[in-house]
Design goal:
The chain is of the alpha+beta class and 168 residues long. Helix content is 14%, strand content 31%. A hairpin with a 4-residue loop joins β6 and β7. The model has no long low-confidence stretch (mean pLDDT 86).
Length: 168
Amino acid sequence: MILKLRMLSDENDNFVRDFEVSHEMTLLSLHNFILESIEYDDCMASFFSADDRWEKGQEFSLMDMGDESFEGAPIAMEKVTLAELVVSECNRLIYQFDMLADRAFYIEVVSATQPNPDFEYPRVAFENAQVPDQYDPDAVPSDDGSIFEEMMGDFGEFDGDDNYDDEY
C-alpha cells in the first residue's frame, strides 16, 4: 500500500509537499526522507501524533529513551511504521524539526493506493513554494511560491498600456 502524505508549514501558506511512501516505512525512514527531500541538515526532531485540531499526542523521538512503560513516554521512530499509525486511526502527524523554537511541519495522510509500477518509492509527488529556512524562522523566501501570483502573472501585461482608448 502506498500512502500519500501532504506536508504543510504554518510559516509559508504556499508551501506544500506531497510524498508517496510505503505504508511499511518507519518514522525514522520518513524523517530521513523528509530531510533529504527538503535539503535540511540532520537535526534532532520528533514526530507527534495529532488529533483533528492538530493538538499533539504521542511523541516519537529519534533517540530510544529505553523505557516506554510510562504512559506518554516517547517511542523510538525506528520502532513504529506508518501502517501501525494508520491502523490506530492516526492520520495526522506533527514533525517538529526545531525543538528550541517549536517549529514544525504538519503532515496528513490524504490517500492510500496501490503502488504504481512506473514509480520508485518513496517519492515527492508534488511540491510548491520554497521550503522555510531550517535555521532562521524570520527568513522570507525570495519567491513566495504563490500559485495565484504565477497564474495571474500573464495578466500584468495590460498594466500601464496607454494605447488603450476607452472613449468610443
